[in-house]
Write a structure and sequence with these properties.
This protein is mainly α and 186 residues long. It has eight helices and no strands. The chain has one domain. The protein is 72% helix and 0% strand. Helix 1 packs across helix 2 and helix 6 runs antiparallel to helix 7. The radius of gyration is 20 Å and the shape is globular. The termini are far apart.
């Protein structure tokens, strides 16, 4: 009697699919995660404090949050219609979101380098001028979850059970709807 052994099936998602479905969001999640290495080095070497903490703490937190956010978007992209993901409009929108996220983390890191506040900073004219633009970028980057959630909601061919389909779509939509008022209250 011959016993055939097969490799155990992984319960983790196929990571190659992230690159196929959302290459820009996947690459950005990787870049943000890898950027934590020099941020932690700066945090370890930094002797200055800003409001009692390392000035690098805020950029570290944002890198974690935005890496998780973009990885979530990359995972959920599989539930969008393939024609939407392949469209020029989606690629341009995704590129704009990536630029907005990169601008946010560069801005936060610049504030950390200067050991100053990134938000509501009226002591540095450039920061005052850029603050409004960063608000626009924050809305743009969170709008990715809204656009993706609406696309998934309308896609009857997700392969998900109806309750999970609705949960994924509403979760993404509510990410936008609940972030904007909270972030805007500053």
């Amino acid at each position: 009697m011959t016993v055939a052994l097969s490799a155990p099936r992984s319960t983790l998602p196929d990571l190659r699919r992230l690159w196929t479905d959302a290459p820009a969001f996947t690459a950005l999640a990787l870049v943000l995660a890898l950027a934590l290495i020099p941020l932690y080095a700066a945090m370890a070497l930094e002797t200055r404090l800003f409001h009692g903490d390392s000035p690098w703490l805020k950029p570290v937190k944002f890198h974690y949050a935005l890496a998780l956010y973009t990885l979530t978007l990359a995972f959920c992209a599989r539930f969008m219609p393939a024609r939407t993901r392949a469209s020029r409009a989606w690629r341009w929108f995704t590129a704009a979101v990536v630029v907005a996220i990169l601008a946010e983390v560069v801005w936060l890191s610049a504030a950390a380098m200067l050991n100053t506040a990134s938000h509501f900073n009226s002591t540095i004219p450039a920061f005052t001028a850029v603050y409004g633009l960063m608000g626009v970028f924050a809305v743009l980057l969170t709008s990715a979850s809204l656009v993706m959630g609406l696309s998934i909601w309308r896609n009857a061919a997700t392969g998900l059970p109806s309750a999970l389909h609705l949960s994924v779509a509403l979760g993404l939509i509510l990410t936008f709807a609940l972030t904007i008022p909270v972030a805007g209250s500053g």
